[in-house]
Amino acid sequence: MTRIPLLAAALSILLPIVAAAETMKMAVTTSFQNSGLAEVLVPRIAEETGVDVELIVVGTGQALRLGEAGDVDAVLVHSRAAEEAFVAAGHATHRTPFMYNDFVVLGPVADPADVTGAGTAPEAMTRIAAAEASFVSRGDDSGTHKAELALWEDAGMAPEGTWYRPVGAGMGASLNTAVGMGAYILSDRATWLNFDNKADMAILFEGDPALFNQYAYLPVNPAKGDHLKADAAGSVENWLVSATARDLIDGYRVGGEQVFTFNAEQ
Amino acid sequence: MVTVLPLRLTGATLARRGRTLVGPIDLTLAAGGTTVVIGPNGSGKTSLLRLMHGLQRPAAGRVEWALPDASARTRQSYVFQQPVALRRSVLENLAFPLRLRGVPRARARAAAEDAARRVGLDDRLSQSAPSLSGGEMQRLALARALITDPEILFADEPCAALDGAATRRIEGMLLSAAATTRIVMATHDMGQARRLAREVIFLLHGRIHESGPADAFFDAPRTLEARAFLNGDILE
Amino acid sequence: MQDLLAGLGRALHLIVTLDPELIEITLRSLGVTLTALAIACAIGLPLGGWLAVRRFRLRRAAIAALNALIGLPPVVVGLVVYLLLSRSGPLGVLGLLFTPAAMIAAQAVIITPLVASIAHQAMRDLWADYHDLLISMNATRWQRIATLLIDGRRGLLTAALAGFGRAIGEVGAVMIVGGNIEGATRVLTTAIALETGRGDFALALGLGVILIGLSLAVSVASHWALRTERRGRW
């Protein structure tokens, strides 16, 4: 008799979830997942809208490709130019900005490039380049990578040389690399605060509005196929701009610090 | 009784990559007794046995049994110079040919135990066959070949790798088998050939150089080469 | 050194407390990999045996191709399976992307050449030993195959275990086609990648210890099963 539930349990693990609730797939960036906010928001979404959101955690580039192919029902990314192109190409009906966090420049506490003394974010980047201090770049076409490239552009330079190390990896893996090399790196604040392997690295520059990082939700265009859960994607969107979401996002703390700021138009 | 013999070879030739290994051979093998194939190394003894048994198809000529091939195949057995031990127990090795023929498990097992007793392997029944000594393994191979009561047994230098005592035991088994089974064996041991043979085939350069009753051959070989071979001279 | 010890401690803690999430992803890892292995064996073992026994013109080329496929990078396999199963790909209508079925497909593709190649080597040596004897005993084609499978079971088990080891420890392909979705497609390796990304080395290492323990347990269990089976033959 005990065999049947055991078998059912084994099967339920193998088969995709077919719970009573509706399920949708959302491609999100590694920074969103690593910040820990996903673990707060996703259960509440399930509770209040009945939609089970399954997260596919990838870089912004891959997230948008998944949306383009119709393999996910929505994407949650942070790269405005790429998002606008995505909407313009008809892959999503619209984009809904709903919160932002900020980037910080991390580096070894000794700070050989004197980034701490910089007045603006581009100046901080210029100092790293001038000192030819090691800098780890995501190099993976992610939102964070694109934000970093924009900063170099603002600084009026193209980073080149052995000190500049694009690793082509996610935020966590890149942080591990930077820690191992004692290099500078641009990271989102939340991932850094959640990161356990900090060693002798610290935030050396922060606060410049140029470092603000806007997150947006983009429901994939339902015209891509009947399999897309447009209704579920709509419910989730409504929830993300709701007062409940605002309280959760603004109230989320990592190490006692607020890391996300809700800014959806209500 | 319906019998597979005589075996008739007509111009039978075995070749590999265009090189003739043995033949053309014309030969009739009638019922009764033991035929010993002798000849220097490379004269084609193994090739002749394999050709007769059907392990190799003739490149030219014919190898014909008195029965159609399919039923002739089931009435022969072959013992290799290097005994092949199936990676199983002694008991399973002995039962194997019977099981292939669909003999029920219990009967095959009884027959295998019986055969093991006759060749003195009954205390090794559950031992893994590849772990037997050379002499034990060849005894096992011979007992396994005889367990199907073949009408004809081919044995290719079965004692080539064995010491004197082991050789004696194999010869004893062959002698008692000869009462009911036609035996064709290759050997390079002239003493063994004298002890076992009723008929001799002397091969040279892949052809039958001389053949006939064993007594006549050993007492008075007709050809110069056979005489030289029996004297232990090197034949080119 | 500290991280290594912390990892061992974490593994021990997870096991002792029977952490439900750990049990879930461990069972899923096992389920996905064993299913992929069953498929790989169903294709690879007969293929290996066939390559060992049959002589045909392109046999050498086929074996060389098989051995080359062993080196196929899993990430590439994952990408190809993704492109096939994507909604915009040829098999998109099946809706298998980001499900365990997709992970099974990718793993099966990755390990089938390995299973077939090792099975081929084992069968080839055995066939060289047995060929003349089985022909001499007039064994039918099926009897020959059955004999090779039974007597070569150790080699076949080795092939299956090698396939299991490669599949259970694979991360690149299952990450791409499974998506590492919590509660749906997260397995031990993708969880390890995730925790490494979060910098939680102790948890990642703890999961790694469990992964190794799992491989070891499967290996020991299958060897044990083979021995008991052998003793009970007569």
Describe the structure in brief.
Chain B has 236 residues and is of the alpha/beta class.
What is the mean predicted local confidence, pLDDT of chain B?
Answer: 90
Largest interface: A-C, 32 and 30 residues
Assembly state of the chains shown: heterotrimer
Please indicate the count of domains of chain B.
2
Structural overview:
The complex is a heterotrimer of chains A (266), B (236) and C (234). Chain A is built from 11 helices and 12 strands. With 266 residues, chain A is α/β, with parallel strands linked by helices. Chain A folds into 2 domains: 8-100 and 213-262, D-Maltodextrin-Binding Protein, domain 2 (3-Layer(aba) Sandwich), CATH 3.40.190.10; 103-211, D-Maltodextrin-Binding Protein, domain 2 (3-Layer(aba) Sandwich), CATH 3.40.190.10. In chain A, strand 5, helix 7 (143-154) and strand 6 form a beta-alpha-beta unit. In chain A, helix 6 packs across helix 7 (143-154). The model of chain B has no long low-confidence stretch (mean pLDDT 90). Chain B has 2 domains: 7-84 and 150-230, Rossmann fold, CATH 3.40.50; 86-131, no CATH class. Chain B has 9 helices and 9 strands. Chain C has 10 helices and no strands. Chain C has helices spanning 2-16, 20-53, 59-70, 74-85, 100-136, 141-151, 153-168, 172-178, 188-197, 201-231. In chain C, helix 2 crosses helix 7 and helix 4 crosses helix 5. The longest helix of chain C is centred in the middle third of the chain and has 37 residues, at 100-136. The chains are: A alpha/beta (266), B alpha/beta (236), C mainly alpha (234). Chains in contact: A-C, B-C. Chain C: This is Sulfate transport system permease protein CysW. Chain C: It is a multi-pass membrane protein. Chain C: Keywords: Membrane, Transmembrane, Transmembrane helix.
Attribute tags:
heterotrimer, B: 236 residues, alpha/beta, Rossmann fold, three-stranded antiparallel β-sheet, 36% helix, C: 234 residues, mainly alpha, MetI-like fold, 10 helices, PBP_domain (chain A), ABC-Tungstate_binding (chain A), signal (chain A)
List strands and helices in order, with pairings:
The complex is a heterotrimer of chains A (266), B (236) and C (234).
Chain A: H1 3-14, E1 22-29, H2 30-35, H3 37-49, E2 51-58, H4 60-68, E3 74-77, H5 80-88, E4 96-108, H6 121-131, E5 135-137, H7 143-154, E6 164-166, H8 171-181, E7 184-188, H9 189-194, E8 201-205, E9 212-219, H10 230-240, H11 243-251, E10 253-254, E11 257-258, E12 261-262
Parallel strand pairs in A: 1-2, 1-3, 5-6, 5-7
Antiparallel strand pairs in A: 3-9, 4-7, 4-8, 4-9, 4-12, 10-11
Helix pairs in contact in A: 6-7
Chain B: E1 7-16, E2 19-29, E3 34-38, H1 45-53, E4 60-64, H2 69-73, E5 76-79, H3 90-100, H4 105-118, H5 134-146, E6 152-156, H6 164-177, E7 182-186, H7 190-196, E8 199-204, E9 207-213, H8 214-219, H9 224-230
Parallel strand pairs in B: 3-7, 3-8, 5-6, 6-7
Antiparallel strand pairs in B: 1-2, 1-4, 8-9
Helix pairs in contact in B: 3-4, 3-5, 5-6
Chain C: H1 2-16, H2 20-53, H3 59-70, H4 74-85, H5 100-136, H6 141-151, H7 153-168, H8 172-178, H9 188-197, H10 201-231
Helix pairs in contact in C: 1-10, 2-5, 2-7, 3-5, 4-5, 4-8, 5-6, 5-7, 5-8, 7-10, 9-10
